[in-house]
Automatic annotation (TrEMBL), chain A:
Belongs to the SufE family. The lineage of its organism: Bacteria, Pseudomonadati, Pseudomonadota, Gammaproteobacteria, Alteromonadales. It comes from the Bacteria. This is Fe-S metabolism protein SufE. InterPro entries: Fe-S_metab-assoc_dom. Residues 27-146 form the Fe-S metabolism associated domain. PANTHER family: SUFE-LIKE PROTEIN 2, CHLOROPLASTIC, SULFUR ACCEPTOR PROTEIN CSDE.
UniProtKB/TrEMBL annotation, chain B:
The keyword Transferase applies. It comes from Shewanella gelidii. Its cofactor is pyridoxal 5'-phosphate. This is Cysteine desulfurase. Keywords: Pyridoxal phosphate, Transferase.
């Protein structure tokens, strides 16, 4: 365990440059015609996500309600919100990637208008966004919207 | 009854999920309920519903008779020696809490409480709380490398004269059966009280509390084909009688005035408030259901299936099984090498295979295995070889996808 929360050691560029994914990757997942294809692509996304250094895998950043460990950091730059996140489980990490694709660099107003339920329905992954699921996605959506509110 | 007829007692297993049959391998979390159980509860509500005890009318007398007849059924089923030794609770967790709470005034600072290293949190946390209240110490009984209780370490710990030993009959995460008769005898010889968590045992083994000779034996209805919200605390009469009631109020009193209240006799003394009457009736039906399966030699059927499941899993590449012994019951715990159990669970769920993935409320056990969690497939009387084949096939697809 690390002693000091690592949030302060992160640079603005760590947030701005974190997500190296393209919007069309989400569209491709939405259009996948079978579940195997959908989840294969989801795991591809997770592979392309930057892996957290051990120092960032800090308990203070843990997403609650997730069976696997997932960590998230938030920073507001100008009027835009940025998040960096990681998970030890691949599918959860892919789900996080999809969520960040929709939320990264958005303004408070945009995040407040964002309807995660609609979005995951569009992606064909609505079943994964439920408070009773132990994947932490629901908690992460709440974290993002809470961050947008302050 | 044939096995197909048995299976028809569980309509939930015949349902289609998105056009696929359900493959339910999560019985250790909760078993499905046979029609005889749901029907008994329905009939109770439709025809007999009234509050029990202190009957002033015909319905209440009937409800009380039915409720008390389940106590008698359980006494025979467990081979307890007195009716008053069967206390209805809301489940295993409540039962253990009742004992831990009830013993508070009998525990002294520096007393030692030993707890099975593979125990469910429900058989750990109440003892920790008891220790906090009294200044006692809780020590885990270590496991061997093959996940069995370490008998040598146990004997060494018994030499320190613990006041209480809390064991699992069957480990909920791994399915390992503890030799409870021998362990209880050793604990007793050392002067300790014994509590056995039978939550994962009663659906898979014949339990005889007199031959085990433990002071307390606890279990839940919902893991043995009965309803949720009901469980049993068995205790030797004089041990139950020593327990301070955790809940006080209706049913359990003898006289009440604002200056002084006296408690009634067992079993009511430990059953404060209106009990889960319909659930107790349902539990009685579940016991009858299990007794009716004797002709099917159902435990042998389960043993064959579990060994088949273990073998089929072992035949896969890159898989770790945890404490998978041929004499285990009910469950098998595993991980795919280098894969997170949650990924495996999500991909099995996509194929309508229901298993449990996580720490299984046994974090200390997971820590001793040095894993964050694992997958657990569990079987019941209704499980078929087809269920297992389907699960293994689905697991092949998971492996393929994760590669």
């Amino acid at each position: 365990m690390n002693s000091a929360p690592p949030q302060t050691k992160l640079n603005d560029s760590d947030f701005q440059e974190f997500l190296q994914l393209q919007q069309h990757q989400a569209e491709s997942i939405a259009q996948a015609t079978n579940w195997q294809d959908k989840y294969r692509q989801l795991m591809q996304l997770s592979k392309q996500m930057t892996k957290f250094a051990p120092s960032l895998q800090h308990d203070d950043a843990l997403v609650q309600g997730c069976e696997s460990k997932a960590w998230v950091y938030h920073r507001k730059l100008g009027n835009k919100h940025y998040f960096i996140a990681d998970s030890e489980a691949r599918i959860v990490k892919g789900l996080i990637a999809l969520l960040l694709l929709a939320c990264q660099g958005k303004t408070t107003e945009e995040l407040q208008r964002f309807d995660a339920r609609d979005h995951f329905h569009y992606l064909g992954l609505e079943g994964q966004l439920s408070p009773s699921r132990a994947n932490g996605l629901y908690a992460l959506v709440n974290t993002i919207q809470a961050a947008a509110a302050c | 009854m044939t096995h197909a007829e048995l299976r028809n007692q569980f309509p939930i297993l015949n349902q289609q999920v998105d056009g696929h049959a359900l493959c339910y391998l999560d019985t250790a979390a909760t078993s499905q309920k046979p029609l005889v159980v749901t029907e008994a509860m329905r009939q109770f509500y439709l025809q007999t519903n009234a509050n029990v005890h202190r009957a002033a009318h015909r319905l209440s007398t009937e409800a009380t008779e039915q409720y008390e007849s389940v106590r008698s059924q359980l006494m025979h089923w467990l081979n307890a020696s007195r009716l008053e030794e069967i206390i209805f609770t809301h489940g295993t967790t409540e039962a253990i809490n009742m004992v831990a709470h009830g013993l508070t005034e009998h525990i002294n600072p520096n007393d030692l409480i030993l707890v099975d290293g593979s125990a469910h949190h429900a058989n750990i946390v109440p003892w920790q709380q008891l220790a906090k209240r009294t200044g006692a110490t809780v020590t885990a009984i270590p496991l061997t490398t093959d996940c069995r209780l370490d008998r040598d370490a146990f004997r060494q710990l018994l030499a320190e004269k613990p006041v209480l030993v809390a064991l699992s009959h069957v480990s909920n995460a791994l399915g390992i059966v503890n030799p409870v008769v021998e362990l209880t005898a050793e604990a007793k010889a050392a002067g300790a009280l014994t509590l056995i968590d039978g939550a994962q045992a009663v659906a898979h083994l014949n339990v005889d509390v007199q031959s085990i000779d433990c002071d307390f034996y606890v279990f839940s209805g919902h893991k043995m084909y009965g309803p949720t919200g009901v469980g049993v605390l068995y205790g030797k009469y004089h041990q139950l009688d020593r327990l301070q009631p955790m809940l006080t109020g209706g049913e359990m009193i003898k006289t009440v005035s604002f200056s002084r209240t006296t408690f009634g006799q067992l079993p009511n003394r430990l059953e404060a408030g209106t009990p889960a009457i319909a659930e107790v009736i349902g539990l009685g039906a579940a016991v009858r259901f299990m007794q009716s399966l004797i002709t099917l030699d159902i435990f042998a059927h389960e043993a064959t299936l579990l060994q088949y499941l273990q073998q089929q899993l072992q035949a896969l590449d890159d898989i770790h099984l945890y404490g998978a012994h041929p004499d285990n019951v009910g469950v098998v715990a595993f991980n795919l090498a280098d894969e997170h159990h949650q990924d495996v669970g999500i991909l099995l769920d996509q194929q309508h295979v229901a298993i449990r993935c996580g720490h299984h409320c046994a974090m200390p056990l997971m820590a001793s295995l040095d894993i964050p969690g694992c997958c657990r497939a569990s079987i019941g009387v209704y499980t078929t070889k087809q269920d297992i084949d389907r699960f293994i096939e689905a697991l092949h697809s998971v492996k393929e996808l994760l590669e």
